[in-house]
Amino acid sequence: MAAKPVLYYFNGRGKMESIRWLLAAAGVEVFRTGQVPMVEIDGMKLVQTRAILNYIAGKYNLYGKDLKERALIDMYVGGTDDLMGFLLSFPFLSAEDKVKQCAFVVEKATSRYFPAYEKVLKDHGQDFLVGNRLSWADIHLLEAILMLEEKKSDALSGFPLLQAFKKRISSIPTIKKFLAPGSKRKPISDDKYVETVRRVLRMYYDVKPH
Amino acid sequence: MSGKPVLHYANTRGRMESVRWLLAAAGVEFEEKFLEKKEDLQKLKSDGSLLFQQVPMVEIDGMKMVQTRAILNYIAGKYNLYGKDLKERALIDMYVEGLADLYELIMMNVVQPADKKEEHLANALDKAANRYFPVFEKVLKDHGHDFLVGNKLSRADVHLLETILAVEESKPDALAKFPLLQSFKARMSNMPNIKKFLQPGSPKKPPLQEKEIPNLLAIFS
């Protein structure tokens, strides 16, 4: 049994990226190989992205202090998951569809999701989304923000609290390290990634936008 | 305020049905407010009741919860249907997420275009028979217990029963090759709370009919 969690996936973002983020934020080192989202951790072979993320968050105290805090975290993570989910198929779209999907995602982010998180921060005035301490919800939101900014660099204009939030969370040592070159963080999926996934899974040849 | 959870959704299974199942299995009575027209959803939005402008929404313990997973996680945790520790929860999560994929496949059948329906259904049933049911049959075989995790009822068992029944609506003999799942189904269906939920007049909703779709689209689009 490896002491470090072992990640099985493609050498790209996809559904594994949120897992890399969370492990990195918790300061956990990983190895990686292989195929589907699968993580060997603590003697278990965990599949299903959500199961993996829930476990890591729970284990490293990033899941709130009680059921109600967990409920809030789950709600917020659900939102950022939906938002980032719109971008999962993005690398596989035609150039024309990419433009449409980009506009769609940016619209959803700026009219539905970012306002919700901006309001959460405004209402309690704290540095973190839940319980006045770092949780999975903060890490997931940062991931989503950076992903959106790759599509529209000023996606956060009009959201001053989210801008400050982004700076703050980015400068947490474990996260700062993950954001630096040479970390396990994956770049935007390129043509090579697309070709590999299609070849291995024999899927995603004819992907339509949302 | 009655203190009972209040479910806000359309009068259909959709994304709320697994919440109804879980509350019922936990023996928790609840109320439902059905969205019947677009204005009903609009009102919830303008009230500020919907964090992401979406339903399902459940009023529970002073919260207006959205996001189906969050709602189910909370109910499961509150009513001790989520395992006794992190590792049991991991197993439960794996099973539940896998079942959700299958359930969604089955549920999406009714909204497929007419010329794609047969193929879609065949694919869903094939996955049930060759990917999902064998996994759960093996889990039950390997540990020999009555329940999937920790020798005790959990949300994984409830969701498995829900999914089995949904598959059987399309293929009544879907469990023919899975003897342990058959006895699992019989056992679970006989548990008092679940037995009650399976009877006529309960909050359990029937499968979606094509003729309902236009009205649902009118509410949600």
From TrEMBL, chain A:
Alphabetical UniProt keywords: Transferase
Record PROSITE patterns: GST_CTER, GST_NTER
InterPro entries in alphabetical order: Glutathione-S-Trfase_C-like, Glutathione-S-Trfase_C_sf, Glutathione_S-Trfase, Glutathione_S-Trfase_N, GST_C, GST_superfamily, Thioredoxin-like_sf
Domain GST C-terminal, residue spans: 66-188
Keyword flag Transferase: yes
Keyword check for Transferase: yes
EC number of the protein: 2.5.1.18
Pfam family, one: GST_N
Limits of the GST N-terminal domain: 3-64
Highest taxon, organism lineage: Eukaryota
Gene Ontology terms, MF aspect: glutathione transferase activity
Family listed: Belongs to the GST superfamily. Alpha family.
Protein name as it appears in the record: glutathione transferase
Organism of provenance: Gallus gallus (Chicken)
TrEMBL record, chain B:
Gene Ontology MF terms in the entry: glutathione transferase activity
Name of one Pfam family that matches: GST_N
Top-tier EC class: transferase
Gene3D superfamilies, per the entry: 1.20.1050.10, Glutaredoxin
Residue ranges occupied by any GST N-terminal domain in the UniProt entry: 3-83
UniProt key word Transferase: yes
UniProt keyword annotations, A-Z: Transferase
PROSITE patterns the UniProt entry points to: GST_CTER, GST_NTER
Transmembrane listed as a keyword: no
UniProt-listed Enzyme Commission number(s): 2.5.1.18
Domain GST C-terminal: 85-207
Family: Belongs to the GST superfamily. Alpha family.
Name of the featured protein: glutathione transferase
Lineage, highest ranks first: Eukaryota, Metazoa, Chordata, Craniata, Vertebrata
Gene: LOC100859645
